[in-house]
Write a structure and sequence with these properties.
Helices cover 34% and strands 23% of the residues. The chain has helices spanning 18-27, 41-47, 85-93, 123-128, 190-201, 210-225, 238-251, 269-278, 291-298, 304-326, 338-345, 350-355, 380-389, 394-397, 417-436, 489-502, and strands at 7-12, 31-36, 51-54, 80-83, 97-113, 137-149, 155-159, 167-170, 175-178, 230-233, 255-261, 285-289, 331-333, 370-372, 445-459, 462-475, 483-484, 506-511. Bound molecules: xanthosine-5'-monophosphate.
């Protein structure tokens, strides 16, 4: 089966929701990809989409620097759905009129459907569904401009109080516009609208499933690799674990996974990751104990960026040594995900730059491996479904992210065995209690940080002068922005008591209540 056979192309005009559109379409089991708004007509034709979606945008079609799509996109005989700015652009380019709305419309609105057409198939259920009122269905609006006059051939198909033309269609040409955002959860029946578009209007069938993806990828990897050898750096994180499992499914023992213990892992982490990964999967893992090597390099290093660079370089050296021992290797398998791919070829906002210093595991060009990146088409949630399909445990699939430099950037200041051990013990208590409270999955990251100061305390009749542990727990979707987690006081109390009672050398625990920005998630 060709899982990429029936696909939707999304043109990105810079909306914060563009990736959500792609995810919703994929949740309908139809493959979708995002391209920049100025993707050429030739390339669009070559991609052979069954439908095109134009995203929203922070811009206005009248801005001097408005992002404009080639008008030919509306004449390819391929259905087009314009969302918000996408609808305004469609209007503007096809001869209609867009104007500033009297009032910027932001938030929930009641949508009244005026024409029962394919895009709204099944809408009678939406207006009688839970929370829906007066024969209307709730939608999410976020726009400053609105359609004053539609291009010829279009009919209004829905309205809200503020937008007389909240949706429009030219069904003969297969062109549709929505002023609201069907891709966000605040539009409860948005998913149905997008499904109607891809199934009923574009004629796609639901072929994009993770089971089909596994079959496809296994065949593809086998073909590309042939009889050669593949190496993969396994960290125990979701992406590298799923990559390894998938490549292993395709070529078995031709794959060697290298797990480097850099001495900067959490308590019992190396053992538990390896045990979990080996369970139920005959994975060829080479465990490299490089603890002493890393700690020697990090001796007396205090500056965070220097720590990062040293660790990055040492990792490459260790990895190279291991690769040499395996013999001739042609391929390197990496867990690059779709958002990284889009980020590198689409708009580069400031966020892309902030992230760059995190790629400490990047391999130097002198290592002339050919790359296999079997997850390059997938979003994180799809990677988890894929991992499940491959039989990986929830323990691996739902692990909180852990930075490449590990505890080195959580032991603030100098890294010694003793300080690492204090942090490990405290950190293990944090995770244990967060898990017991049932918060592990919903919290993006939760951990302990060892501060480079000592404070005074009293124990029995004696004054103590010991270490301070800071607790950090944040909610986040992607690590780019984060909110500090409002953990229950009781939970904070339990964690603090346990750390002070159980971890020798700590007499004070504080809680970090800063969000990102302006703070960051890590302390170094
Ligand atoms: P910050 O601290 O910048 O972190 O808010 C955002 C996310 O990135 C992780 N992080 C790193 N990951 N190498 C990594 O692989 C690094 O040097 C690094 N620094 C931060 C951090 O844990 C969070 O998930």
């Amino acid at each position: 089966m060709d899982i990429h056979g029936e696909k939707i192309l999304i043109l990105d005009f810079g909306s914060q929701y563009t990736q959500l559109i792609a995810r919703r379409v994929r949740e309908a089991k139809v493959y979708s990809e995002i391209f920049p708004y100025n993707f050429s007509i030739e390339k669009i034709k070559k991609f052979r989409p069954k439908g095109i979606i134009l995203s929203g945008s922070p811009a206005s079609v009248y801005d001097k620097k408005a992002l404009i799509v080639n008008k030919e996109v509306f004449g390819l005989g391929i259905p087009v759905l314009g969302i918000c700015y996408g609808m305004q652009l469609m209007t503007h380019l096809l001869g209609g009129v867009v104007a500033k709305a009297q009032k910027r419309e932001y938030g929930r609105a009641e949508l009244h459907i005026d024409k029962s057409i394919d895009l709204f198939h099944g809408y009678k259920n939406w207006i009688s569904g839970e929370g829906q009122r007066h024969g209307a269905t709730t939608v999410w609006m976020s726009h400053g401009d609105r359609i004053e006059d539609m291009p010829s051939g279009f009919t209004p198909i829905a309205h809200t109080d503020n937008s007389p033309i909240a949706a429009m269609a030219n069904i003969y040409k297969g062109l549709y516009g929505l002023q609201f955002h069907p891709e966000v959860v605040h539009t409860p029946y948005g998913r149905n609208i997008l499904e109607n578009f891809v199934y009923r209007i574009c004629g796609c069938s639901p072929t994009w499933t993770m089971k089909a993806f596994v079959d496809y990828s296994v065949g593809h990897i086998k073909e590309v690799v042939g009889k050669e050898k593949v190496i993969c750096a396994l960290s125990g994180g979701v992406d590298s674990s799923v990559t390894a499992a998938l490549v292993n499914r395709a070529i078995g023992k031709q794959l060697t996974c290298v797990f480097v213990n850099n001495g900067l892992l959490r308590k019992n982490e190396a053992k538990s990751v390896l045990d979990t990964l080996k369970r139920g999967m005959d994975l060829n893992i080479k465990y490299v104990d490089a603890e002493a090597r890393f700690l020697k390099k990090l001796k007396a290093v205090i500056e965070p960026e220097k720590k990062r660079k040293l660790i990055g370089r040492e990792f490459i050296a260790v990895f190279e040594d291991s690769a040499k021992k395996i013999g001739k290797i042609d391929f390197l398998a990496q867990g690059t995900l779709y958002p990284d791919v889009i980020e590198s070829k689409s708009f580069k906002g400031p966020s892309a730059i902030i992230k760059s210093h995190h790629n400490v595991g990047g391999l130097p060009t002198r290592m002339t491996f050919k790359l296999i990146e079997p997850l390059r088409e997938l979003f994180k949630d799809e990677v988890r479904v894929l991992g499940k399909e491959l039989g990986l445990s929830d323990e691996i699939l739902w692990r909180q992210p852990f930075p490449g430099p590990g505890l080195a950037i959580r032991v603030l200041g100098e890294i010694t065995d003793e300080r690492l051990n204090i942090l490990r013990e405290a950190d293990a208590i944090v995770l244990d209690e967060i898990r017991k409270a049932g918060l592990y999955r919903e919290i993006w990251q939760s951990f302990a940080v060892l501060l480079p100061i000592k404070t005074v305390g009293v124990m029995g009749d004696e004054r103590t002068y010991e270490n301070v542990i800071a607790l950090r727990a944040v909610y986040s979707l992607d690590g780019m922005t984060a909110d500090w987690a409002k953990l229950p006081y009781d939970l904070l109390g339990t964690i603090s008591n346990r750390i002070i009672n159980e971890v020798k050398g700590v007499n004070r625990v504080v809680y970090d209540i800063s969000s990102k920005p302006p703070s960051t998630i890590e302390w170094e």
